[in-house]
Write a structure and sequence with these properties.
alpha/beta, 17 strands, elongated, eight-stranded parallel barrel, seven-stranded mixed β-sheet, 33% helix, binds ligand TNX
Length: 514
């Protein structure tokens, strides 16, 4: 071959390769994963997914079929390709293979995602791990598939596991009520980012949102309104179970909260006998806090509390029951301590672990209690001295109801403005002096809903902050840095659009638009 035709050939080759590389990424390390995995290595080729690809599910692993069905559903939604999972008694040589290996050297909830040219293997240490391997795989796919064209995934290996076991979000369904569909949407969005706990704030001054069969007026009266005077609403126990199941299928545990002894006006408005003067309180639709309290010296209070805990614990398969305990400004200190001391055994009696806002550390804590740090370092340190674990939710960093900047229309600002960088640039082990990593249960980002009325409002406050909280809970501090994270987040803008998320286009993030 003479030099001229050699040059022409080379030019043509380079042209073909670059045209190709626009569509086919073969470098897995270039994928914008959130949360950042513990390790990603690339092997430089591509796996093709098309309509004849097969999803195989390791036979005999309980629950793995549900995880496989989730993968099939998401693939269908993202790519239009519809695949039916099949059981496999041995590992196949090609296709997508889901399995669980409890003896793997990866930790709980860990997984190895091995993308070869012919076989993608997703192996979890448990079901959750397999599910997270799938989420990582889905993020390795192009955001939008072109109908009828095959899809390519860069080959390589992801080995991954979370830093913290509790990676949560809280949704306040009391100040404004949100439908079962809205809650399911929130669960889906959490699942994409490997969030594994959803705390539901089910009662407050403005509304009681969960059916309690032995106290039906709680929802009949207490559930009948919300902030601003709208019609409110509540979940029947059947609907709550449906939410729990939907979450469970996405490896998310529901943590129910009944806030006591303060934040109880809706209950006090429903039953006159819960009030010392025997008169029902008026329903409340404002946004002040700290004016209501259960009567800590009346026996009926404890009958009421036990009935509620018993009924709610019975339909909650997760290990936690959140007793609230915050901002009880009109409960005398000694009465508060007496109340928290008296209700703790009621939670453990029905088989649940106690979680409460940091104020509960003023009481004598039982074993295995979790104090949720939201504002008071002193309370939290006291809790640690009493042997409690800490769930970190510092208001000034994690409160997703805080405005992003001074122009944000929705939200509050009592804990400060929380731009996307401020939400990300901190770590759970430094928020309370002397806090040891083993004492941290995990991280939770709460969303209070005084100013939020519809799912679009929720989405706007949650995105794009939630992926950052998910990463703080999942990824080791050494692997996190804002300047690098914001570039990955920028690439998720297209995913948010694809999911139809109403998100805040923070000027701090260089959103990728093409
Ligand atoms: C404080 S955080 C509260 C809530 C409010 C929230 C508004 C906490 C334990 N209590 O009652 O909704 O501020 O940001």
């Amino acid at each position: 071959m003479n030099i001229r035709s050699y040059l022409i050939l080379m030019t043509a080759l380079i042209f073909m390769l670059s045209a190709c590389s626009e569509k086919v990424s073969t470098d897995l390390t270039q994928t914008a994963f959130i949360p950042q995995p513990a390790s990603v290595t690339a092997t430089g080729e591509a796996f093709e997914i098309n309509t004849s690809s097969v999803i195989y599910v390791e036979e005999g692993v309980q629950g793995l079929q549900t995880v496989a069905d989730y993968l099939a559903e998401e693939l269908k939604r993202m790519t239009g390709i519809s695949l039916t999972p099949q059981a496999a008694s041995t590992a196949p040589s090609k296709g997508i293979y889901l399995s669980v290996n409890p003896n793997s050297d990866l930790k709980t909830e860990g997984y190895e995602l091995n993308i070869g040219k012919k076989l993608i293997s997703v192996q979890g240490t448990d079901l959750a791990g397999a599910f997270y391997g799938i989420q990582t795989l889905l993020q390795a796919l192009p955001v939008k598939a072109v109908a009828g064209e095959p899809l390519y995934v860069a080959t390589g290996v992801v080995r991954d596991f979370p830093e913290y076991g509790y990676r949560g979000m809280m949704l306040d369904v009391a100040r404004h009520f949100f439908s079962v569909e809205d809650v399911k949407r929130v669960i889906d969005l959490c699942a994409y980012y490997k969030i594994n706990r959803l705390h539901l704030h089910l009662s407050d001054d403005q509304g009681w949102r969960i059916e309690i069969k032995s106290w039906p007026k709680l929802t009949e009266i207490g559930g009948s309104t919300q902030v601003g005077g709208g019609k409110g609403g509540f979940y029947t126990q059947e609907q709550y179970k449906e939410i729990v199941q939907y979450a469970m299928n996405r490896q998310i545990i529901i943590v129910p909260e009944i806030d006591m002894p303060g934040h109880t006006n809706a209950a006090l408005a429903s039953y006159p006998e819960l009030n010392p003067d025997g008169k029902a309180r008026e329903l409340y639709t404002g946004i002040e806090v700290g004016f209501s309290t259960l009567a800590t010296n009346m026996d009926i209070t404890y009958k009421f509390v036990e009935d509620v805990i018993r009924e709610l614990a019975a339909i909650t398969p997760g290990p936690y029951f959140h007793i609230g305990g915050d901002e009880s400004h009109v409960t005398k200190h000694d009465d508060y301590v007496y109340f928290i001391n008296r209700i703790q055994p009621l939670v453990t009696k029905y088989g649940k672990k106690i979680v409460g806002w940091d104020e509960i550390a003023n009481a004598d804590l039982e074993e295995d209690v979790t104090v949720q740090f939201w504002s008071n370092v002193k309370n939290t340190s006291m809790g640690l001295e009493k042997g409690a674990k800490v769930l970190v939710s510092p208001g000034a960093r994690t409160y997703m109801d805080m405005k992003y900047d001074s122009t944000t229309v929705l939200g509050l600002k009592w804990a400060g403005l929380i731009e996307v960088d401020h939400a990300y640039t901190w770590s759970p082990d430094t928020v309370v002096p002397g806090l040891q990593k083993e004492q941290i249960l995990g991280i939770e980002a709460p969303l209070w809903s005084e100013t939020l009325e519809k799912i679009e409002d929720i989405e706007f406050m949650v995105f794009p902050r939630l992926p950052g909280y998910a990463e703080i809970g999942w990824t080791a501090n050494e692997l996190r840095n804002w300047d690098e994270y914001k570039l990955r987040l920028a690439k998720h803008g297209k995913r948010f659009e694809d999911y139809n998320i109403n998100f805040y286009r923070s000027p701090l993030v260089p959103w990728v638009n093409e």
